[in-house]
Amino acid sequence: MSSELGDFLKARRKELSPATAGLTDDGRRRVPGLRREEVALLASISSGYYTRLEQGRRRASEPVLDALARALRLSEDERAYLFELSGKDAGRPLRRPAQRVRPPLRRLLDDLTHTPALVLGRRTDILAWNPPAAALFTDFALLPRDERNFVRLVFCHPVVRALYTDWPHMARACVAQLRMEAARDPADPRLTTLVEELSVRDPDFRTWWADHRVAVRTAGTKALRHPTAGELTLDWSTLTDTADPDQQLVALTAAPGTASHDGLRRLRLLGRMRRLDAVTSERTVPDAPGAPGSCSGSAAATDRPPV
């Protein structure tokens, strides 16, 4: 069993106080949070059994996982993550084919001529996008394929990073979403490479990844400061492709009559002038040279603002 399950359990019990869990605090704690035997008591399992779970030497049944989720006061997303981790074996990487956007999803993306939208795959890889999305974020076509990853751009690409008025909040949410995706395939070598690189490059990513926070990508609001469109408050929603649940179309919209809606209109007009209609997916432009995990493409793109 992967140590990810044990690390997650330890992270959650260290954040839960005895008072919150309904236990009496004897005041003699050397470290914050609950002790292993207290979690075991709350979950009605033996202390030895729980210890073996944290050490990766035992696999939990569904009733035990349910009991642990209740004992640790897990959110719905955290509970789903717990079950995902318990069902994977890191010693046997999943063999999944390379992702390709299906024609119906690509047509839907192309039809969104007034709405920034992109298709995210595993590891938040950017599989396809439309001109408004390129105008809003950056010209993805100029990046090598291995660098077309949303979380990577948020941390490594200065232009994308500078778009967010509350970067720490948004970036931490991205890490939590990536952590949730990691539960589906903990042994994914490309994910491992991405996490290792970002952990070295950015101390915030390293800290937030170690927190084991998780979140499902569903919907929310982004506050952006764009050099052309100005201040933008955009609502984003996701549409999961039922034929490939690892692919999601993410669309960003603004309410009509708002300054943000007018800002998106200015971006659309600028995109037309620069003929961005030719850029629709990674298949439209040959990959630029660049080693996997490098930041060479990002450096080249930072000299110019988003178009």
Explain what you see:
The chain has 307 residues and is an alpha+beta fold. 46% of the residues lie in helices and 11% in strands. It has helices at residues 3-15, 18-21, 36-43, 47-54, 62-71, 76-86, 103-111, 131-136, 150-156, 158-163, 167-182, 189-201, 203-210, 259-273, 296-301, and strands at 117-120, 126-129, 219-226, 230-240, 248-253. It has a five-stranded antiparallel beta sheet. Helix 5 packs antiparallel against helix 6. It starts with a helix and ends in a 6-residue tail after the last helix.
Summarize the SSE layout with pairings.
Elements: H1 3-15, H2 18-21, H3 36-43, H4 47-54, H5 62-71, H6 76-86, H7 103-111, E1 117-120, E2 126-129, H8 131-136, H9 150-156, H10 158-163, H11 167-182, H12 189-201, H13 203-210, E3 219-226, E4 230-240, E5 248-253, H14 259-273, H15 296-301
Antiparallel strand pairs: 1-2, 1-5, 3-4, 4-5
List keywords for this structure.
5-stranded antiparallel beta sheet, 5 strands, disordered C terminus, alpha+beta, 307 residues
Mean pLDDT over the full residue set? 82
Distance between the termini: 47 Å
What portion of residues is helical?
A: 40-55%
The neighbouring-strand order within the major sheet is 2-1-5-4-3
Order of helices and strands: HHHHHHHEEHHHHHHEEEHH
Poorly predicted regions are 89-94, 275-307
**Tally of individual helices:** 15
**Structural class determined from secondary elements:** alpha+beta
Number of strands: 5
How is the biggest beta sheet arranged? 5 strands, antiparallel
What characteristic shape results from the CA principal axes?
elongated
Our estimate of the beta-strand percent is 5-15%
Radius of gyration: 22 Å
